[in-house]
Design a protein that fits this description.
Protein name: Large ribosomal subunit protein mL46
CATH topology of one domain: Nucleoside Triphosphate Pyrophosphohydrolase
GO molecular function, one term: structural constituent of ribosome
Structural class: alpha+beta
Subcellular location: Mitochondrion
Helix content: 40-55%
Organism: Ramazzottius varieornatus
Keywords: Mitochondrion, Ribonucleoprotein, Ribosomal protein, Transit peptide
Strand content: 15-25%
CATH superfamily of one domain: Nucleoside Triphosphate Pyrophosphohydrolase
Number of helices: 11
Number of strands: 8
Distance between the termini: 129 Å
Length: 334
């Protein structure tokens, strides 16, 4: 009898402990806001969930296969530069350095033939005053000289006064004719065209797709003459691209069915001095000969971020130096 009572007491204690554990677990779940769930058994997914997952996998595989079948379209673009025609105006530092070199050359160089002749004539004039007895001999020597050094200097100065340097500002600058090659003579100019790309025209460098059997350099040459005219004469700089960019085609466009996107390779070329201006093709709606600053305002920012990496131009006019640094750097000390 006592054994049965002890066993009942033990069962009661186990039952009370299990109730307390359940209460603590429920309280903790309530405080944390989490619901305790039993782990899902294998094979518990419904047939509908399996069908949805299988359909998603099939769509992903189809998209990947479509991307692998489509290729990138290779395109060559030409960054055509018109080099500066005249030198840029000197800034304060350059003028000071040029004056320093002129002064140093004047003080350390040998006398020229003209300066020696001038000194000889000055000596003759002094001897003419001092040596009265040799006046006849000096007069004969002077008669043989048709034109003195001073006469030459007066003649040169007269011709120099008649000379008027050409103005740096041309008529094209005054009219703001961005299609003229005779503008911004002291700056580099870049050819940018409004070319038909897809459904809408875009401001870009002249570009075109690669054709089978061509090198990328040959494609660039063909594209430039096809879009800008056969009369343009230029010199390409090497056969290696100077820059690169890529972009994806819109999914709804027709070309996206064949190509995933475009990879553009930029080649540089210099315009010859005797070259004709642009003769635009039907795909070119408009064109400009723009400076670097004008080009930045014309093309889209993402495109300019790519092309500015190989557009080398140093603006000397931006250099400025204060008087203290100028005196320290360029003052002659003897």
């Amino acid at each position: 009898m006592s054994f049965m009572i002890a066993q009942s007491t033990q069962h009661a204690r186990i039952w009370i402990a299990s109730i307390a554990c359940t209460c603590r677990t429920s309280s903790r779940s309530y405080q944390t806001g989490k619901v305790l769930r039993m782990p899902r058994k294998p094979g518990a997914e419904t047939a509908k969930a399996l069908e949805v997952r299988q359909r998603a996998l099939q769509m992903t595989e189809a998209q990947n296969a479509d991307l692998h079948m489509r290729k990138w379209q290779l395109i060559s673009a030409v960054c055509l530069e018109r080099p500066p025609v005249v030198s840029a105006p000197l800034n304060e530092m350059e003028r000071s350095f040029a004056a320093l070199l002129d002064k140093q050359e004047f003080e350390t160089s040998w006398l020229s033939d003209h300066e020696l002749t001038k000194l000889q004539e000055a000596g003759k004039a002094k001897r003419k005053k001092k040596q009265q007895d040799a006046e006849e001999d000096v007069a004969q020597e002077d008669a043989a000289v048709k034109e003195t050094a001073q006469d030459l200097e007066d003649k040169w100065n007269e011709n120099f006064q008649k000379f008027a340097p050409a103005d740096r500002t041309t008529e094209a600058d005054q009219r703001n004719d961005v299609k003229s090659l005779n503008r911004k003579l002291d700056r580099k100019l870049y050819l940018v065209v409004n070319q038909q790309l897809g459904d809408a025209p875009q401001w870009v460098f002249p570009q075109g797709p690669w054709q089978n059997g061509e090198s990328m350099r040959q494609t660039a040459e063909r594209v430039l003459h096809a879009h800008c005219g056969e009369t343009m004469k230029c010199s390409f700089l090497g056969s290696v691209p100077f820059g690169f960019c890529k972009y994806k085609y819109p999914v709804e466009s027709d070309i996206a069915k064949e190509f995933y996107g475009a990879k553009v390779f930029f080649f540089k070329a210099l315009l010859n001095r005797n070259s004709a201006n642009v003769t635009p093709s039907e795909d070119i709606k408009d064109f400009k000969w723009a400076t670097r600053e004008e080009l930045e305002q014309t093309v889209i920012p993402k495109y300019f971020n790519r092309i500015e990496r190989f557009m080398y131009e140093f603006n000397y006019a931006s250099l400025r130096v204060n008087e203290t640094d100028h005196d320290t750097l360029f003052k002659l000390r003897y």
